[in-house]
Fold this protein.
Amino acid sequence: MNSFNTSLISRILTVSSCLFIFLLGIMLLALSAGSAGSGIREGIRAVFSFFVEDPARDPILQTIIWQIRFPRVILAALVGATLSLGGLVFQALLRNPLAEPYILGISGGSAIGAIIGILMGFSRFPGVSITAFAGSMATLSLVLMMSSGQTVLKKDALLLSGVMVNAFCSAVIMFLISLTQDARLHNIIFWLMGDFSLVEMNQVYIVAATVLPCFVLVFCLSNSMNLMLMGKDIAQSMGVNFKLVTIALLITTSFMVSATVAQCGLIGFVGLVIPHLLRLLLGADHRLMVPACIIGGAGYMVTCDLLARTLPEHGEIPAGVITAIIGAPLFIFLLKKSKS
Amino acid sequence: MRKIYYICGVILLSIFFGGETGYCQSREVEDSLGRLVHVPTNPVRVVSLAPSVTEVVFALEQGHRLTGATRFSNYPPEAKHLPRVGSYIHLDVEKIVSLRPDLCLAIKDGNPVDAIRKLERLGIPVYAVDPRNLKAVMGMISDIGGLLGAEAKADEIIEDMQERVEKIRAAVSGISEYPAVFFQIGVAPIVSVGTDTFLHELITLAGGKNMTAGPKPYPRFTVEQVIVMAPDVMIITSMDRGKGFDSVRARWKQWENIPAVKNNRIYLIDSDIVDRPTPRLVEGLEVLAGYINPDAFQAIP
């Protein structure tokens, strides 16, 4: 079955390269701006002076750009791509436009796992990542169990189950926090709201090695997602192994989401904003949407992180606060629209 | 390949001309955590990573060496004008690097380890202090004095502190029964201090019995538990700069069976002089002694 013809491939390439240029622009801006105080114009010149021989360049600014800002920009891009793709996959699989890892409680479950890992004194990797993944799988099965009567996933039941699981997760998180008394507490609270402030290159490598193979897998299954949206029977008659693909996609998505949660905490609503925005522009073909969501989500997250560290005069606000401020109103708007 | 030559050239140049910033002469010292740190012999661009460290540097009359300090570095007033490098618990690494420090002074409890490691990886020497009790605070003053070439001033400060502590110790020795003290550092929830804190040490030195001594450093309590404790003296710190004190005191006033309420012995103390590891701790000790044992300390100014 040849699902990728020439016109589709050229369309994918065009859309991806347009979005990629946008992503590069945002990344350049994110590398140039920061609390070190040099202006944007000087920052941009400093970024470019790395690639050409500029005798006037400032070694301190180079250090700041490449060793402090660069890792966090790359990690923000990876996390944004993961969360946005996660939203797309959940929306397709559960046939619910409001599904998203954060709203369904998957992120909350990973956070519980991660906090338990932190409190048990595990290292970020692999210890905390494994407990985070276990937490996300537990909440995923809980949500699916609660919402599935027989075989049909009802729209409202799913959303309500997610809300309940999420509320339960927040309660458990608050419980764990109230048990903690030491210096780790402040760090956990900041991390919970999505924190990119102390990113190291090795964290970037770990996240990249975890999520990039997942991206490839999801892209390979993108045509199956298209067929599955037409209904179980049609998909099966077209040769899609419905059960296997569903399970593979759910586990892959939970795995990559939990990997990002373990590294930088809870960041919500990215999986809602980007897929909806891009669907309006590009239509519902997942073969096009998967790469678009990856690149678009990356650009969006880098933007939110840039706002998080440049808006306040002193210090920075957690990136998760920015994504929620933008995302939550959109969620309400979509809910209202889908009801009417 | 040319780029590599260029980078090598930059490094060589910075070593060669580094003398101006004091980089060329360095020595190896062991900090309070037993780590070996290469520090410049004459540091001129010091960034302090905690308000207490800032205070100590100014007390040593070495404030001119500071190029940056954390938020809430509010004492002495000159410290307010230093560039800010985030809060001590959430350091702004980018800002610190941009100030080109030749030495950072960190504090073990509070500064996040990740941020310190990042600074060190970027080639900035970080000297950590660990002042967990009054004796260690004096050690810290002496250590920082040694780093900044102010040994004589450090000795002078420590001597003064010891003298004032001794005076209080002598006055307390005559007291037969220590009054029961409840020290409140948090309002909602009610938080007090355990054994392994400055405040416990200060309360005991001032001739008080800390009712909340125990292994938890900052235990939480309910109103019921405080009533049962029946403290003779209640002291509340000004965590929010004293604004909430009146309302907190008014809330305690309704429990007439607490001795401290009955005898009107609820006091406010400036948290900066009792929870920051600085020379001002002795000042805090004197205020506490006056609150807990007013009769014994009337003589001390």
Notes: The first strand of chain B starts at residue 26 and ends at 30. The longest helix of chain B spans residues 151-172. Residues 14 and 227 of chain B are 65 Å apart (CA to CA). Chain B has two domains: 4-149, 176-297.
